Amino acid sequence: MRNVKKRFEEVADEYDEEFVKLIPHYQASIEALINTIPFDENKEIKILDLGCGTGVVTKNLKELFPNSTVTCLDLSPKMIEIAKEKLKNYKGIEFFVGDFLNFEFEEGYDAVLSSLAIHHINDNDKKTLYKRIYNILNKGGIFYNNDRVEAPTNHLQKVYHDAFVNNLRKNYGNEKIEEIDKIADDNDIPSKLYEQLQWLEEVGFKSIDVVWKYYAQGVFGGEK
Ligand SMILES: C[S@@+](CC[C@H](N)C(=O)[O-])C[C@H]1O[C@@H](n2cnc3c(N)ncnc32)[C@H](O)[C@@H]1O
């Protein structure tokens, strides 16, 4: 976890500019994530943004759900500082530096969202986190995760990887692509999508769905 924190402390300043180039259809995936929220746009809902980074998800959330209160949690103090600055004109947002594996969450959330963060923890920790998320949701509340996933076969792993690299070629040369690939290998622990859907079911979620997918990235979750 210390490596993950260090990496995001280092890239925080360039994050917003770089990630739209690194992640294919980044904005479309964030929109799909937010579209999963089943409540009226004017309702005062309580939302948790896990691994909020520089606050992209919360900014999109506050635009669509202006009366929501949002808890933003991230491991990296620098990412939280940037999020605070980006979101300074919005009301009803609280920020915490902490690890979602052991953070003492409040209860009573209507929605828990996470984007591109949970693939930094291993299978067992994901299962534990999914249970913790289930426990802090209100009945009828939802959890959706926009995340990197592992392919179920070697062939599909190659297909996913080729799609990722082809996207990188639009903005980077070979040397930089190799560097990005190595960083992903060293920092990411994606799990198979189908297994994660099963874990969600095991901890109690229903109406489980994959609402958006592009090769190695998917938006998936369910309802309590
Ligand atoms: C790729 S960024 C995604 C940021 C943002 N959610 C987005 O979609 O733009 C991943 C973020 O997850 C955070 N993160 C990773 N592991 C975490 C953990 N165990 N607890 C809290 N935050 C974590 C990192 O610090 C980083 O800011």
UniProtKB/TrEMBL annotation:
* GO function terms (MF aspect): methyltransferase activity
GO biological process, any = methylation
Q: What is the lineage of its organism?
A: Archaea, Methanobacteriati, Methanobacteriota, Methanomada group, Methanobacteria
Task: Give every Methyltransferase domain span.
Answer: 47-141
SUPFAM superfamilies, per database record: S-adenosyl-L-methionine-dependent methyltransferases
Which controlled-vocabulary keywords does the entry list?
Answer: Methyltransferase, Transferase
EC? 2.1.1.-
TM spans (from-to): none
The protein here is known as: Putative methyltransferase
Tell me the superkingdom of the source: Archaea
